[in-house]
Amino acid sequence: QQQVKQSPQSLIVQKGGIPIINCAYENTAFDYFPWYQQFPGKGPALLIAIRPDVSEKKEGRFTISFNKSAKQFSLHIMDSQPGDSATYFCAAAGATGTASKLTFGTGTRLQVTL
Amino acid sequence: GAVVSQHPSWVICKSGTSVKIECRSLDFQATTMFWYRQFPKQSLMLMATSNEGSKATYEQGVEKDKFLINHASLTLSTLTVTSAHPEDSSFYICSAWDLEPYEQYFGPGTRLTVT
């Protein structure tokens, strides 16, 4: 029940394309859903996060779509660029406002080609 | 966003020695920090939760006598890998919650190689 399932495992898109990464969760106590971007040899960097009270959030070229009834959320990267090539992790946490543990997805390796 | 630093960024040590890794929250106070381990091309594996002024909480299967955690202040947590062995070689990453706003930030990671 603590798992967060992430797909696809890897993804190749052309420059300008819109890669979509999906995550699903079971634990209804989760109420905070961040996405992290990680480059090789670096720590994860927070991209964008959403809470269940909204169905969509945009920050720059990154958009999270959230479906509470389906317990699914996804990351869309608009106008993708080669510099977006990285590994993306979704995560979830419960007990908003407290320093609770994040449960991570397994990651998606994105490659954006020219 | 908030900044979390780690030191050192990489370290090579001999088998049997101990290595200390520092994690600092630079512009916010963190009563709770987390330590992760990451193997190549895998997700982050939570090792332990570090609580300021109290004992760390270890995840199942993590040897607390091998991975010593100390959280002596609101901005500093340390992870000491004791009697390191080659199988301890990994990428270690810490994180901390900035509760205002509610976001968790990660350090840049420490690459440990045990020879």
Helix-strand blueprint:
The complex is a heterodimer of chains A (114) and B (115).
Chain A lengths: L3 E4 L2 E5 L5 E6 L4 E9 L6 E6 L5 E4 L2 E6 L4 E6 L8 E9 L8 E2 L3 E6 L1
Parallel strand pairs in A: 2-11
Antiparallel strand pairs in A: 1-3, 3-8, 4-5, 4-9, 6-7, 7-8, 9-10, 9-11
Chain B lengths: L3 E4 L2 E4 L5 E7 L6 E7 L5 E8 L5 E2 L8 E7 L2 E6 L8 E9 L4 E4 L3 E5 L1
Parallel strand pairs in B: 2-11
Antiparallel strand pairs in B: 1-3, 3-8, 4-5, 4-9, 5-6, 7-8, 9-10, 9-11
Describe this structure in words.
- The complex is a heterodimer of chains A (114) and B (115).
- Chain A has 114 residues and is mainly β.
- Helix content of chain A is 0%, strand content 55%.
- In chain A, the strands form two sheets. In chain A, strands 2, 4, 5, 9, 10 and 11 form a six-stranded mixed β-sheet that branches. Chain A has a five-stranded antiparallel β-sheet with strand order 1-3-8-7-6, with no helix packed on it.
- The radius of gyration of chain B is 13 Å and the shape is globular.
- The model of chain B has no long low-confidence stretch (mean pLDDT 93).
- Chain B is mainly beta and 115 residues long.
- The termini of chain B are far apart.
- In chain B, 0% of the residues lie in helices and 55% in strands.
- The chains are: A mainly beta (114), B mainly beta (115).
- The interface between A and B is medium-sized, with 23 and 27 residues.
Keywords, separated by commas or semicolons:
heterodimer, A: 114 residues, 5-stranded antiparallel β-sheet, globular, B: 115 residues, mainly beta, 7-stranded mixed β-sheet, 4-stranded antiparallel β-sheet
How much beta of chain A, percentage-wise? Answer: over 45%
Contiguous uncertain segments of 5+ residues of chain B: none
Please give the largest β-sheet of chain A. 6 strands, mixed
**DSSP summary: helix tally of chain A:** 0
Q: What composes the largest sheet of chain B?
A: 7 strands, mixed
Rg of chain A is: 14 Å
> Order of SSEs of chain A, N→C?
EEEEEEEEEEE
**Low-confidence regions of chain A:** none
Largest interface: A-B, 23 and 27 residues
* Mean pLDDT over the full residue set of chain B: 93
DSSP helical segment count of chain B: 0
Structural class of chain A: mainly beta
Principal-axes geometry of chain B comes out as: globular
What fraction, in percent, of the residue positions of chain B are helical? Answer: under 10%
In quaternary terms, these chains amount to heterodimer
Query: What is the end-to-end distance of chain A?
Result: 40 Å
Q: What percentage of amino acids of chain B are in beta strands?
A: over 45%
The gyration radius over C-alpha positions of chain B equals: 13 Å
Order of helices and strands of chain B: EEEEEEEEEEE
Number of strands of chain A: 11
